[in-house]
Amino acid sequence: MSILVSKYGLSFMISKEQQKKFFEYPLSFNNPVLTFKKFQDIIEERPVLKEQFDQIELIYHNRLNTLIPERFFKPETAKDWLAHQIKLLPNEPVTSDFISSIKAYNSYVPFQKLDLNFIKQTNKLIVKHSATAFFNNIEQIKNQTQNLPVFEIFLNVFPKDFQIAVFKNESLLAYNHFEYENIEEFLYFLFFMTETLEAKSHQSKFYIFGANNQTEISENLSMFTDNIQFISKKNPSQIFNYF
Question: How many CA atoms lie within 13 A of 189 on its CB side?
Fold first, then answer.
């Protein structure tokens, strides 16, 4: 079972006997306590979520994270690094995922109650941040690609936010996570990043997760460059880019 937790909702995917089931529940709040209560209500509503699983993967999708180069990382100072990005409570937990492809740690704030909720249901509980999964997917694409351009720009698009990672000569140049309300805001953040990093269109290639060539985003992006690759996934739901 895989679970994606974001400010917009809770999403579940269950893979069993070569079949997949998807459940999605929107949220109208961004509060860990209320999220956990909603989580418990969902489990009572769907008994299948109480079963034993070979593996449970819990992914947090939010902007409460930061990347720390491996050479600077120490577990005891990860919270200090993250505190430069967001406001943290004194007792707030921080955990870190190692991303080998970029030689960096991704430190973030988990919901410990959700983590503990599933320990008894599986022998293998995997907890990570969506940025970690994003970079793992990027690594797969890069390993399959030849004749790489100077700039590789990866976008992971959701209905109201997107992650962006920019590589120059195969090295990570920048990563960010933006929220947007309309296509104008989306394009503003995107072109702000590319112009700041001097990623010229003739030197760049875009790789897009979570959107296809029929969306408003792709139509507008095509006016900037025609060097775009849409990364298709077998899963039908846009929110399951990571599974």
Answer: 20
3 state SS of 121 = helix
Of 138, 137, 131, 58, the residue nearest 97 (C-alpha): 131
Length of the chain: 243
Cβ neighbours of 177 (radius 10 Å): 19
Residue 22: CA count within 13 A, CB half-sphere: 11
**The domain 2-63+95-134 is classified under which CATH number: 3.10.400, 3.40.630, 3.30.420, 3.30.1490?**
3.30.420
pTM of the prediction?
Answer: 0.88
Residues 76-88: pLDDT tens digits? 999 999 998 888 8
| Spatial distance between the Cα atoms of 40 and 118, rounded to a whole number of angstroms | 12
